[in-house]
Amino acid sequence: MSTPTGWALANIWYDQNRGIPQHGSPLESLFLLVLIQRQQAQLLSTRALVQTSMPDEKAAADPAIEAYQKYHDAMFPFLDRIGDPDTEAQRKRLEKFVKHNARIDLKPYWRRQAKAAKRVKNLRRMKLKNRKK
User: Fold this and answer.
1) Rounded to whole angstroms, what are the CA distances from 45 to 5, 15, 33, 48, 69?
2) CA 26 → CA 17, 18, 22, 29, 74, distances in Å?
3) pTM above 0.70, yes or no
4) Which of these, 14, 18, 19, 54, could form a disulfide with 34 (CB 3.0-4.6 Å)?
C-alpha cells in the first residue's frame, strides 16, 4: 500500500471482489484500509471545493465551516470514539501483548504427525514382508 503498485493492486482487489471477506482476515484489513483512504480522498476533494468558495469574512465563512465539519463527522463517525492517539500508551499495550509467548495448542498437530509417522512405519514393514515372500 505504500507503493503505487501496491495501491493499484489493493484497489483492483477491492473493486473486483464479490462479497465480503472473512472477518479478521488480512483481506478484510486491506479492504477497510482502501475504503477509509478512498473516503479521505473524497473528503479532501470536498474540502478543496469548500475552501475555494469561502468568503473572506470570518462571520460569513462560519456556516460553511460548520457544514463541512458536519460532513466530516458523517463520513468518519468512528473518529469521535478513537480519541487522541497516545503513542506511549499504544507502545505499552503492544509490549504487554508481545511479552507473553504465543498460546497455541500444538498437541493436535503433533498427534496427527505421530499417527502419520506410525502409518508410514507400518507401510514400510508391510513392503518389507511382501518382498521377503
Assistant:
1) 23, 21, 18, 5, 14
2) 14, 16, 9, 5, 27
3) no
4) 14
Contact of 71 with 46, CB cutoff 8 Å: yes
73-129 pLDDT, tens digit each: 888 877 766 656 677 777 787 777 777 766 666 677 778 888 888 888 888 887 777
Q: Which residue in 70, 66, 71 sits closest to 43, CA to CA?
A: 71
Residue with the three cell numbers 477509509: 36
Q: Cell for 84?
A: 487522541
Please state the three-class secondary structure of the chain as a single string.
Answer: CCCHHHHHHHHHHHHHCCCCCCCCCHHHHHHHHHHHHHHHHHHHHHHHHHHHCCCCCHHHHHHHHHHHHHHHHHHCCCHHHHCCCCHHHHHHHHHHHHHCCCCCCCHHHHHHHHHHHHHHHHHHHHHHHHHHC
Do 30 and 38 contact (CB within 8 A), yes or no? no
Q: How many CA atoms lie less than 13 Å away from 4 in the CB half-sphere?
A: 0
